[in-house]
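Example noted here:
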Amino acid sequence: MRNSVPAPANSGAGEQIQDGENSTNFFNSDEWEESKHPRKENGQFGEGGSSGKVEKSQRSDKIRKRTRKEVQLPKDEYARVMSELNTNLTKEQRKKKSITKAIGNHIYKIENKGFNNYRIVSKKEI
């Protein structure tokens, strides 16, 4: 059962809805100051109200930090590894999302995203 308890008039407290143990305060129009939220001529919010813009280099640094690392291989080694994976993976290995495979003098950890779609996560010399 939901009970609605309006705040007394002119109290500035807003409306509070109570539902069992949960309680929510809703927006109070007395707290809104239009001067802190400028609008463009078409009514959309314009600039202002934020603490400032983030520089492009700061944003791109954050994005780079979120991406997973991948080992970059020389073209010839990359071609050899991809060929080996496409040719010699077993049916069981093809079903797994993560594979460890010894190729040449190295052990590669690979993220399997499907046939001919692999991401090399790490490479260690044997």
About this structure: Residues 69-125 form one domain. The chain has a mean pLDDT of 75.
